[in-house]
Amino acid sequence: MIVGAHVSISGGIANAIQNALELNCETFQVFTKNQNQWREKIFSGEEIATFKKNLAGSAFRNKPLAAHDSYLINLCANETAKLEQSQKAFFAEIERCALLGIDYLIFHPGAHTGKGETWGVQQIAESLNRVMENLNGSPVTLLIETTAGQGSNLGYTFEQVKAIIDAVIERRRIGVCVDTCHIFAAGYDLRSAVEYERTIQKFDEIIGLTNIKAFHLNDSKKDLGSRVDRHERIGRGFLGESVFERLMNDARFEYVPGYLEIPGDEQAFQEDIALLKGLRSN
C-alpha cells in the first residue's frame, strides 16, 4: 500500500506538496477549499500552473492524489434549496480537482435527516447522476467513503454503498474509499486475522475489491459497532496495530493509496507514517 496523509494547503494549494514531503508521504490528500464554508475557491491560472509544475518535479508526479469534499455537502438533503446548493458545490469540487490534475474526489454519501435510508440512497444516486451529466469527460474518479453510520449518515453498510453504485449511470466514474475507523464503528470487525479476511471477503462479495481505489487509515477511539466516528492514531485505538500490518501487506491492495486522517500535529503524522511503512514486509 502507498502511504500518505491529509495535508494542509494553508498559504496556497502548491504548499501541499512541500507539506507532504515534510511528512515523508508517498502520496497525499487535500481539501481544495475551506471544508466548513460554502464559499467556493477559484484558483488563478498562476496557482494552478505552480501546483502542476511543483507536482511534476516531485516524487508524487505518478502517484494517485485525492481531495476530500466539503463537510457541508449533503447529496440527499431533504430541502430543495440545500440539495441544489450541495449539487452545485459538489460539481465545483470536481472541477477544481480536474484543473489541478487530482485523481480522486472522496465524498461522504450524505445524511437523510429523517427521510429514511432507502429514500436517501436513491437521492444520493440521483444527485450523482445529475452532476455527472455535466462533467464533459472529466478524468476525476468519485470515491464513496464508507461511513460510521453516525446520526442519519448513509454508506455505513456495504449494501448501501453497492446500492448507490448500482444506481449510478456512469459506473466508470465511481469507486470506493474504505475508512478503517468507519467500517469498524459500523460493525465490521478487522481485529483478528479471521475477522479481517471475513470482512474483506464480504466487501468483495457485495461490492467487489476492484472498486476499492483508496483507504483512509485511522484507528478508532470507539469500539466495534459504536456507530460513532472518532479517529485515533495508528495502534492506539480499538483496532490496534495488527490490523494495519495486515493492510500494509495485503497483496490485493498493492499500490492502493492509504491516507492518514489521524488527530495530532505534524510530529504525530510523521510518526504514524513511519510506523505504517515499518509494518510493510521487505
Q: What would you say this structure looks like, in words?
A:
This protein has 282 residues and is of the alpha/beta class. The protein has a single domain (2-279), classed as Alpha-Beta Barrel (TIM Barrel), CATH 3.20.20. Helices cover 39% and strands 15% of the residues. The protein contains 9 helices and 10 strands. Helix 4 (117-132) runs parallel beside helix 5 (158-167). The model has no long low-confidence stretch (mean pLDDT 96).
Secondary-structure-derived class = alpha/beta
Low-confidence stretches: none
Per DSSP, what share of the residues sits in E-state strands of 2 or more residues? 5-15%
Mean pLDDT: 96
In CATH, the homologous superfamily goes by the name Divalent-metal-dependent TIM barrel enzymes
Count of distinct strands: 10
Gross CATH architecture: Alpha-Beta Barrel
CATH topology: TIM Barrel
Pattern of helices and strands: EHEHEHEHEHEHHEEEHEH
Query: So what's the overall shape?
Result: globular
Count the domains. Answer: 1
Count of helical regions:
9
The strands making up the biggest β-sheet line up spatially as 1-2-3-4-5-6-7-10
The CATH class is identified as Alpha Beta
Helix content: 25-40%
Largest sheet: 8 strands, parallel, barrel
Q: For the record, give the distance between the C-alpha atoms at the N and C termini, rounded to a whole number.
A: 13 Å
What integer value in Å does the Rg equal? 18 Å
